[in-house]
Specification:
Two copies of one chain form a homodimer. By secondary structure, chain A is α/β, with parallel strands linked by helices. Chain A has two domains: 139 residues, Aspartate Aminotransferase, domain 1 (Alpha-Beta Complex), CATH 3.90.1150; 230 residues, Aspartate Aminotransferase, domain 2 (3-Layer(aba) Sandwich), CATH 3.40.640. Helices cover 41% and strands 14% of the residues of chain A. Chain A contains 13 helices and 13 strands. In chain A, the strands form three sheets. A seven-stranded mixed sheet of chain A has the order 2-8-7-6-5-3-4, with helices on both faces. In chain A, a hairpin with an 8-residue loop joins strand 12 and strand 13. In chain A, helix 3 packs across helix 10 and helix 11 runs parallel beside helix 13. The first copy, chain A, is globular, with a radius of gyration of 21 Å. Chain A starts with a helix and ends with a helix. Chains A and B meet through helix 1, helix 2, helix 3, helix 5 and helix 9 of A and helix 1, helix 2, helix 3, helix 5 and helix 9 of B.
Chain lengths: 397, 397
């Protein structure tokens, strides 16, 4: 009767994001929603589009039978076909439904992919800063996450990736628009990464996959776009979800799409389907598979995220906090200002902010000390109300 | 670019259940639904009760905001409280919502529990025959499943369990009513198991958990009941779902409940919550957490399963196939009759049945050669129509 020792250890270093989110729930109970500025979690505060709600009502009222039963593990054929259409449009190359596996969110999809490809001790390279949970997703399946520091503007640094490459490299994982930096990796950098891996494969005989985790693809600012991956690299996989663009993170609905140009596409899909089954996901939730099969391309107005970004960056400017200007997603990655005693410690600064009812996440978990992350997918009111708190926090730091 | 070698190997020995299920889909396309007798998968053909449908419609129409967002990883407080009520009623001892973790089905729950408790090389003992997927769930987290053969009537054989016990034993996993045998483990046997493990703990200093996987608890025949576990053993965990009793297997909604008498209950719950998060489940699907919070105790008439059991056992009697009389669930475990050439091979017999459009699953994966499993959660018409096919199959075997 005990908890496994390696889990105890992992729990100690566990999610600062979730800790802040749960601290926020407590603070809000004590001080009221309006007096807590919770920038901890990427929990979109936009409601799902009306099309999603209509589809929910339609399927809830349907007299069709068997709609809540098991279906084949990769999902309904009609849902997979819809996702194939989505991915084909985004990637500019055609893939079929058989190359899509429905997943319990992008997190479930990534776990299934990692389980499918990682031999014990294999490595996954990730441009750093990176989404903190990747470390766990990789370790779950006997792999090791190898961060490769990006440039100062958080663009891919191909030299650090070259240094990180080894015969153990199973994949390079990219996340663009990036959580936590908001960076979008350029078309040129994606091409350079692809060429570098092709070169590496020639030398070592092992071609790493490129896995693009892109739940934020639709949330971009100005005239930015996310470059397609499939046309430039055959051994490539896209993992995504409807958590962020359709505001459905709690429903756990996402997918994995394998490049049909990948010579091992069929075997790889079988392995991901197998992993989906044995990891106990079994299949993505049936009801939302139906809902998104008809609403995946519902138009969503993300302009409020731009307004929020601009409102929060102005507040940070006024408070004297430096940040990286996000090109997409809804996170602001901020440099910890130097305190009166000379500290730039991210954990101390987050604790200090919490005293002012501001909830932020230390950059440590994202692979970047002396930085913090603010998620601005919160109401404009919360952002506006936080201005004085930020000022006061910096003044007393 | 490749699939991990250990996954390739696992895939080779992969699920006979799913293979039969998918072979069935193909056969039905070719010969029509009425001419294929698909007993492969535990996919309940009863529709969810009307209460579930009403709740779905209510929540789909609701104007509440934020209902599809993230919530704390273990689930909504109101859903956890409802599950605590359910488990308290079933177990006859009181547990609170904080001892419940909502899961993506029982399969997701078991994976989260195994991840939380298994140190590398730890063992989980299971009375055999057992649900075939347990082997994978255990291996996913570095554990080894150790089958302990039951008695001839499939009741627990305490001697085989005693022999299987070692300092590496992290838990004993019981599944009652059992898949594939339909056996319900008696109150006396549960007590004997508890006492045996308490004795083992005194000797070795390590007390194994008892984990009860009981999605079939509600589906019992005659005056049978499933004995509670919590009152007789403190280090105990119940894992369940609404897949079978409310016919919602595709929606992936289940839970884990930890005995509040367990001295490490709080730490264990934290570890299971952590595992739920990092395995990428993140949380059980939000919509069905709401639905089952109000419908978990909807009355369901399982008498049709009894009718089906009786109809199918009569057909097997007539065809001369021996089986174990199920006390619960909806599976018939049948002995392979001896063929004219003297074969009792379960794989050969399943292939032979498939020629007669009968889909069954070989017992191999369940730990029992020379037996096959039939899932009779199918229409009465399918069962009635299969009579001639069974007779013909046995005659030509």
């Amino acid at each position: 009767m005990s908890v496994a020792p390696q889990i105890l250890k992992a729990m100690e270093n566990s999610s600062a994001i979730r800790k802040a989110f749960e601290a926020g729930i407590k603070l809000k109970k004590e001080f009221g929603n309006d007096n807590v500025y919770d920038f901890s979690l990427g929990n979109p505060d936009l409601e799902p589009p009306v099309e999603v709600k209509k589809a929910m009502q339609k399927f809830a009222a349907s007299d069709d039978t068997g709609t809540h039963g098991y279906m084949p593990n990769p999902g309904y054929d009609f849902t997979r076909a819809a996702m194939a259409k989505k991915v084909s449009e985004e990637q500019g190359v055609s893939i079929e439904g058989k190359n899509v596996i429905m997943a319990c969110g992008a997190a479930g999809g990534l776990n299934a992919v990692f389980k499918a490809i990682l031999a014990p001790g294999d490595e996954i390279i990730v441009p750093s800063p990176f989404f903190a949970e990747y470390t766990h997703y990789c370790a779950n399946h006997g792999g090791v996450l190898v961060p490769a520091m990006t440039n100062e503007d958080f663009s891919i640094n191909i030299e650090t990736i070259k240094k990180a490459l080894s015969p153990k490299t199973a994949a390079v994982l990219i996340n663009s628009p990036n959580n936590p930096t908001g960076k979008i990796y350029s078309k040129e950098d994606i091409k350079l990464l692809a060429d570098t891996l092709t070169e590496h494969a020639k030398k070592t005989g092992r071609k790493p996959y490129i896995i693009a985790d892109e739940p934020y693809r639709a949330i971009v600012y100005g005239n930015k776009t996310v470059a397609p991956l499939f046309p430039v690299y055959d051994a490539s996989i896209v993992v995504s979800s409807f958590a962020k663009n359709l505001s459905l993170p709690g429903e756990r609905i996402g997918y994995v799409a394998v490049n049909s140009a990948c010579p091992e596409a069929e075997l790889l899909c079988s392995a991901i389907i197998f992993a989906t089954r044995v990891l106990g996901y079994v299949n993505a939730p049936a009801f939302f598979q139906r809902v998104i099969s008809e609403t995946w391309n519902a138009p969503v107005d993300f302009s409020s995220y731009l307004l929020r970004r601009n409102a929060l960056t102005k507040i940070l400017d006024d408070a004297g906090i430096h940040y990286a200007e996000p090109e997409g997603a809804f996170y602001l990655f901020c440099k910890v200002p130097k305190s009166k005693s000379g500290s730039t410690d991210e954990n101390e600064f987050c604790s200090h902010l919490e005293k002012h009812h501001i909830l932020a996440v230390p950059g440590t978990g994202f692979g970047k000390k002396e930085w913090i992350r603010l998620a601005y997918c919160v109401s404009e009111k919360t952002i506006a109300n936080s201005a004085e708190a930020f000022k006061a926090a910096v003044k007393t730091w």
